[in-house]
Specification:
heterodimer, A: alpha+beta, 8-stranded antiparallel beta sheet, 6 helices, 8 strands, globular, B: alpha+beta, two-stranded antiparallel ribbon
Chain lengths: ~170, ~200
């Protein structure tokens, strides 16, 4: 009985540990309530580990933004993102057209993009701290370790929600 | 006694915090841009805290100025030193109609009225293919004199973005209005983080 408890306890404890560190859940539903549903849980720690070891596995040039023109604008992007993160909340952009409405709002330390159309609704949440860490440095290198660290701040965040007719895709971090 | 004092202070802080946050929020200047096009039934509204505008302008000065020249259209360039000199001379004149151009196509007026520099461009309508008049355009630009002073307050071939943004922080109200037969553009500053539904 004790052996069984140990045998069952180890994987349960492992699962609990992984779950407590965060899980990215990709939930895809097709064809409405009676259709197909696929749920893919990816432990956040796996993504963090992959990012952390990326510099030692991938060649340096692979983790670098090669386009110098794009690099010129990184400072601009960083300054604007930082100012947005530090700034007050509010509706930043609203575009209303005949069949579509796009709204970008700043809520806390996230940018929320919502596109509402006749048939489809898209909601994307961009955590500003993650966006800042994803920007390459002045040398063009992407700081994967910092990016891995930033991922841990994503717990309990809805990242993507796409509704297209009977299909529904949702990505969130638990 | 001490416990109840601490509890009282805590409670007061809890009550005062939302009010203080709302007050801080209310004092933040926001730059608003609204573009409405009747034919496309499209409305674009942009609201940005001035701090974001400041960060953008500071980190990308080449957007508005390159090699010491302001680019006015494709073919016209004006040296900053010339602009500064002209502005200094205009400042000495005081309130006046500085420029008046009347032509077949459009009327242009540049005048200084108190603390405001006004630029009015009225493009005349022309008969279209179907006989209807079209192409009329009305541009109203009101720039605070202090804003131009701030922009031109640096030496050499640069515009002083920092001083200009500091000036905008104090400004409330319309900055630019452009109206033509189809579209309407308005740029203004206030302390609201959203735009009213009307014009």
């Amino acid at each position: 009985m004790a052996k069984l408890a140990v045998i069952l306890g180890i994987p349960i404890a492992l699962l609990a540990t992984v779950a407590s560190l965060g899980v990215v859940v990709v939930d895809v539903r097709e064809g409405g309530p009676d259709g197909q549903r696929i749920v893919v849980p990816v432990p956040l720690v796996l993504a963090q580990a992959a990012l952390a070891v990326a510099p030692s596995v991938a060649p340096m040039d692979e983790l670098r933004i090669p386009d110098r023109e794009a690099l010129r604008h990184m400072g601009f992007a960083r300054e604007v993102l930082q100012a947005l993160a530090d700034g007050p909340d509010g509706e930043l952009v609203r575009v209303e057209e005949r069949d579509e409405v796009v709204v970008v709002t700043k809520e806390g330390r996230s940018l929320r993009v919502k596109v509402s159309g006749h048939r489809e609704n898209v909601s994307v949440n961009v955590p500003l701290h993650l966006a800042l860490q994803a920007l390459p440095g002045e040398d063009g290198r992407i700081r994967t370790t910092a990016l891995a660290g930033a991922l841990s701040g994503l717990r309990f965040t809805d990242l993507v929600d796409v509704e297209d007719g009977d299909d529904h895709v949702r990505v969130w971090v638990w | 006694m001490k416990k109840s004092f601490v509890a009282g202070v805590g409670l007061a802080a809890l009550v005062a915090l939302p009010a203080a946050m709302a007050a801080a929020q209310a004092g933040t200047p926001w730059l608003h841009v609204r573009v409405e096009e009747a034919k496309k039934a499209s409305k674009v509204r942009v609201n940005l805290p001035l701090t974001v505008v400041e960060a953008a302008l500071k980190s990308m000065p080449e957007m508005i100025e390159e090699h010491g020249r302001l680019h006015l259209g494709k073919h016209h360039q004006l040296k900053m030193a010339d602009l500064r000199r002209v502005w200094k001379e205009l400042a000495a004149v005081g309130d006046a109609e500085l420029v008046t151009v009347e032509s077949e196509d459009e009327n242009v007026k540049v005048m200084r009225k108190g603390d405001i520099l006004q630029v009015f461009v009225d493009k005349k309508a022309r008969a279209g293919k179907d006989g209807k008049e079209e192409g009329a355009e009305q541009v109203r630009v009101e720039v605070p004199v202090s804003l131009v002073d701030a922009l031109l307050s640096s030496e050499g071939d640069e515009v002083n973005i920092q001083a200009a943004v500091a000036e905008l922080q104090k400004r409330r109200g319309d900055i630019v209005r452009v109206q033509d037969d189809d579209s309407h553009v308005r740029v203004w500053i206030d302390e609201q983080n959203t735009q009213p539904s009307g014009k």
